[in-house]
Amino acid sequence: MQTRIVHAIAGTFIVVSLLLGIYVNQNWFWLTGFVGVNMWIHALTDWCLMYVVLNRLGVKKDGAKCSG
């Protein structure tokens, strides 16, 4: 469940910051870059602050899925 939540949050931040960058102020593109860098860091180190936050909130970790 955590992976889906992290992807949804990252995607939302990217889309919202792109729209804000286009329609409000170009400085919002920095947020898009920040999300991208964090995704890159997660790919290299397997550490993500959002997973830490979700763990503390008690969100269920990804595990075996039910088949059927």
Note the main attributes of this structure.
single chain; mainly alpha
Description:
By secondary structure, the protein is mostly helical. Helices cover 71% and strands 0% of the residues. The chain starts with a helix and ends in an 11-residue tail after the last helix. The mean pLDDT is 91. It has one domain (2-57). It is elongated.
- Tell me the number of structural domains: 1
Uncertain stretches of 5 or more adjacent residues: none
How many distinct beta strands? 0
Q: Number of helical runs?
A: 3
Distance between the termini: 18 Å
Structural class: mainly alpha
**What shape does the CA trace take?**
elongated
The radius of gyration computed from the alpha-carbon positions, rounded to a whole number of angstroms, is 15 Å
Helix content range? over 70%
Give the integer mean of the pLDDT values: 91
| Main beta-sheet strand count, sense and barrel state | none
Share in β-strands? under 5%
Series of H and E elements: HHH
Short description:
This protein has helices at residues 2-23, 29-45, 49-57.
Describe the secondary structure blueprint for this structure.
Blueprint: H1 2-23, H2 29-45, H3 49-57
Helix pairs in contact: 1-2
